[in-house]
Amino acid sequence: MAPKVGLVCDTGWDGGHPVHRVNQEYIEALRDGAGALPLLIPALTPPLAAEELLAAFDGFCFTGAVSNVDPARYGGHAPRDPALLDRARDAVSLPLIRAAVAAGKPVLAICRGFQELNVALGGTLLQHVQEAPGRMDHREDEAAPLEVQFGPAHAIAIVPDGLLARIAGTGEAMVNSLHHQGVDRLAPPLKVEATAPDSQIEAVSLPGSPGFLLGVQWHPEWRWAENALSRAIYAAFGKALKSGKW
User: Catalytic pick from 111, 116, 179, 202?
Assistant: First the structure.
């Protein structure tokens, strides 16, 4: 049986009804790239217990989203647009990340999930990366077609001898870039695996973790089968889910 991977949903509204959702690209990449059975975790209030979720799943993927992590979770200043918060997702994701890491469950964290990972383990975020001294604008052109928005945007330098270097088999790659928030202070247990040309952290791992853990700021789920690095990431995650090795 395929290993079960849980994806925490975003919350929103559709026709006046509350909904829980995950973009299809994440689901298909896990099914086809990692050989997993993707199952959605609703961001209910009160949240589902992390202990119950650990018992139900073999691993977890924390996806990207239009929402941001509540700055109150890391001691940041009040957000400019509170409508972009998803506190219900925070309440599920952050405890679940800590529990999954402690239990050695494989974790793949993408974009917002990458930021959740940093916050859950004690780090902070830049709320507007493009306004930080020395940082470039990592946002996409929202007026452009999706193929352009999710197309290669900048290079990353992959740290030698790290987890991502072993997965990628190379020291550099081109990635897409669709974020305005990013890592500020790195959570103490995390290790930098890749950086953008402006030194913004783009990937992290957790040395000594009993389970696979990789966080990336870009979107490997977008047309994953057409990108060598994305294929390698999902294959490594799938191997960890099935065998505990990667």
Answer: 111
